[in-house]
Model the fold of this input.
Amino acid sequence: MSEVRVCKLYKTFGEVIAVDHVNLTVNDREFVCLLGPSGCGKTTTLRCIAGLETPTSGDIYIGDRLVTGLRPKDRDIGMVFERYALYPHLTVFDNVGFPLMIRKHSPETIKKKVHGVTATLDIVPLLGRYPRQLSGGQMQRVGIGRAIVREASVYLMDEPISHLDAKLRAHMRGELKRLQRTIKSTTIYVTHDQLEAMSMADRIAVLKEGVIQQYDRPDVIFDTPSNRFVANFVGEPTMNFIECTLKESDTKASLKAKSFEISVPREWVKSSKAWEKGDRLVLGIRPDHIRIVPPEETRKKKDVISGEVWVYQPLGTEDIYDIRLGDQQIIKVRAPAEQARYVVHEMGKKTLLEFNKERIYLFDRDTGETLTQAQFTQNKGKS
Done:
């Protein structure tokens, strides 16, 4: 298997910049996801690596080979598309073995490799069937088998499971991750689904408008997003954002929004970039880090925030609340289902919230840059 290096990749379609000087290194045997919304350049980047698009400028290396000018068949890649593109007149055996047939491998070699790959994908019983006799998940496994049967240096996957139903998609996420570990392949996987990227990838490249916003491990991207776009795109439900200003006195600091004000450690604020943008801040906090305060605790708590229930969504083990703060701001709160015993669900009923101050983020309101991420551990003894 081989490392992939993309160096200053630039691709335009007329006046539209699809990929804007992207640099990306995918290590040998690594599973990397290109993640972003439609039109962000992730598929174009993948197609340039595959040789299906010609870069406007920049270089692409697979291993030690410069492949920028090579045809797809000369790059030693396997590609899986969103649609299976199976040959309807061929059996599963012949569909999987087709790449070997056109390379004139012997019948014995084809049989051995097809049986090996289909055993890994658990589709051996389907070898005699035609595509019309298969389910969506089975057809996708056949498509994956056809890509990996030729033992390519790199596998490229363009949203291969996005059209499957939710249950099958969840199953296929696990299957693809297990397969990649089994065959120890270098894999680049395009998706707009952050859950797919977070659950499958070794590293994620988050793209926006042809530019990589952040490239790191899933946990790092989730916990320490580089900007508001990344923070908003990764995580479900998405992060809450509330415009605020920073207030400071000799002894304390606070973040003031339209409908509430909460104190924060003064030392933390003074040591961050947020101090320079005190009147142009956005507070970010994930739904998991907001607590609904039980009635018996309200008198003991400081910095509680009052709101009213706007929407209530019971999901079994957890509940999602839309809580309105003041006249307009609506934020999401994720709470364990056990809290339902003391939370009033009816729309318009009052409730009290408590932010986990150690998980607050502050962003520049103008640029979206992450100015600081709370986790005040270093300041706990000072505040």
Remarks:
- Residues 166-183 form the longest helix (18 residues).
